[in-house]
Amino acid sequence: MIVNYATRREAADRTVDAITAAGGRAVSVQGDVSKVEEVRKLLDVAEAAFGTPDIVVNNAGVFSFGPIETVAQAEIERQFAANVFGTRPMKWTPF
Questions:
Q1: What is the pTM of this model?
Q2: Domain boundaries, the chain
Q3: What is the mean pLDDT of residues 14-37?
Q4: Fold of 2-87
Q5: Cβ contact 22:11 at 8 Å
Q6: In 1-95, which residue ranges form alpha helices assigned H by DSSP?
Q7: Could you give the count of Cα atoms lying within 13 Å of 83 in the half-sphere of its Cβ?
Q8: Which of 6, 9, 21, 58 is least crowded, fewest Cβ atoms below 10 Å from its Cβ?
């Protein structure tokens, strides 16, 4: 299993430790799923470590709370990039 993280390596490493302690195989990989080149790196690491995956689960998502009139354009773009573009298929797609 690949455990991806954007900024919190310690949390990803704890997840990897729990998986390996239970007898599984896992590695953590840093990457921002809103950036195409980082998703490609993530998928390349996954394939090198485990072969072509049978299942890919993307549960990335970012958000912020507050009145809409206070949300900056950069924040809207950050959320859109991660929550929409971050879920698009990049590799291993049947279509």
A1: 0.69
A2: 2-87
A3: 92
A4: Rossmann fold (3.40.50)
A5: no
A6: 9-21, 36-50, 73-83
A7: 10
A8: 21
